[in-house]
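tool_call: predict_structure(chain=1)
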Amino acid sequence: MKKKIKYSILVVIILLIGILFYELLWGKLFPYSPVIIGFSKHEMSNTIIYVQNGADYTDFTKIDTLTPPVEQFHQLRFLQKPEIFIFRDSLSYIHRSVSRARFYAFYDRRVFISPWAVRENKEGIISLEIYLKHELSHTLLLQNMGILNAYRSPRWFLEGIAVYSVNQMGTSWYPAKQETYRLIKLGNFMPPEYFDTKKEDQVRLNVKYRMTFIYSEFACIVDYIIMNYGKEKFMIYMKSLLKNSNHDEVFKQVYGISFNNLLMEFKNHVNTTL
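tool_result:
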């Protein structure tokens, strides 16, 4: 009887180890795997690019030029080279990514590019450069935050600064600043503290593309803060959040007003802008 129990435990352990290895090599744990199988590695000056065998992509130099402008805007340096993954087909991407988004940044250095994003870039539907710099903005901030602050950081801020810093408003499906203002005037507004929480679904928005409107709204808030209080102070605010994840406390310390008051200022500004 004892031998059977020991044998059963051993079988379970072997199965769990097998599942773990599968997930690391071909499943959802792949973004954190120390072993990369089935990809060719291209070490560049600023990035490391992994291309899945059979994928049709060779413009590595273009990707490698995207990190310096991201560092320049944020006034930060990448602590490790970002690792960019380009996939051969949709099934390979979906198996290994937790998201079906065109691009996805994992903590704290790997960025996945979907096959359909590469195709849409060729067709002129999206700009791979803009989207990838957006994700690199996340990667840069996450690297400089550390894992605990990255988990606690305000998601609206990460998206707002990413969209603002790469001039994404007015491209692809992202409404431009003027259009975003018009939609806000009509009563569309996502409270930043609701974003990426259960409360987000409670907010009704009468817009064509919900998520891109939300991202543009957050970029407009970032734009308003910089426009009215200066980029130098904004950088103090941003870098303070790298060490202290209590957003409202940091905002009050840097700007001398509550973030809720800032949002009231922003809404008043939008409503009085022609």
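agent: The first helix runs from residue 2 to 26. Proceeding to next step.
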